[in-house]
Amino acid sequence: MRADARKNHDHLLAVAGAVITEQGVDASLRDIARRADVGLATLLRHFPTREALLDALLRTSFDELTTKAAELETSSSPEDALVSWLRDFVACARDYRGVVTSMMTAIEDTQSALHASCVTMRASGTRLLARAQAEGTARSDIDGTDLFALAGSLAWLGDQPSLAPRADHLFDVVTSAILTSAGNSNAEAERRPRARG
Amino acid sequence: MRADARKNHDHLLAVAGAVITEQGVDASLRDIARRADVGLATLLRHFPTREALLDALLRTSFDELTTKAAELETSSSPEDALVSWLRDFVACARDYRGVVTSMMTAIEDTQSALHASCVTMRASGTRLLARAQAEGTARSDIDGTDLFALAGSLAWLGDQPSLAPRADHLFDVVTSAILTSAGNSNAEAERRPRARG
DNA sequence: ACCTGAACACCGTTCAAGT
DNA sequence: ACCTGAACACCGTTCAAGT
Lengths: 197, 197
Hints:
Chains A, B: This is Helix-turn-helix domain-containing protein. The structure is a homodimer. By secondary structure, chain A is mainly alpha-helical.
């Protein structure tokens, strides 16, 4: 890549990250190009679709998440590893409002520029789920696609501004449906009612 | 309302219902007006915002849901009533792709034309939740807003075409996190692993 | 190689003019 | 009262022309 092209590429990515953090994944591409002091056609030349741009923006987070999932497979208990991965996934999706819906669409669309990344993510989660299931700490009647769906629904909850104050609590509730360990059972929650703000 | 206006109103509602069922809540208003053989300005005169149109479209379902919730309060066991209401809510939201996100936005926006309907819905759910909590069949550390959020996340899952085949299963998983009864406990799910397609 | 302005077919909003 | 065409400021896509 030519030096000027490289510079445009990196600058566009930085500006797009800022704009999409502000406005969500449906932000105007024209606006991004404008803020980057570049023609709209130049943005489209570097990132031919909105999803290609999203994939580039998420690349770093995705790669980190994949690496971390591999580490968790050996460094943590199966249960902690699974919950930790879920937490990371949700945190990563929260960076860009609406991105989890794009991901759920992309994972079923082989043509999407986001497809491969999503498949990799789901595979990481699937491995951690299987390990927890083998240990008996995750319910056995869900598979990797179910887990990815539940992770997605958690990210969707995290996307709703009105639910921000209770995002952690809702995370615990849904996670308790995935786990089977006593510490997260509903009976336990029943015994120790938690004060709400 | 004048006769011709009434006719336009009803016709627009019917056409809008069809188009939004096909294309989701972000369907082009211009397209709806075009298909109704009416000027775009006429559509906007009857329904000044997209949310006003959505509210009108959902009015019937909303009212039925509210009525049914009141009936469930006396006719069913607290647990069955709560699950039944959740199921109806999800079914109603599935009519229009993306509507649950509009609802979650609207319930925090007093100005939204959808606001009042959403508040009523949440109140219905809250009453059913409280009854189940009093009986001990719903976990005590969630409130009506949490329930509405979880119902929303279930509707979001139902919105994803790729998850359609497992929508019922995911409903059961999330519902098991809300309920505390033995028949839905994770331990029980663990004992009777369920075959997946 | 890479960039860009302009043309294109869309969108929702607004309003003066028509019946 | 109610309807509408047209003007407006947007949007993403495409491509011939420039450097």
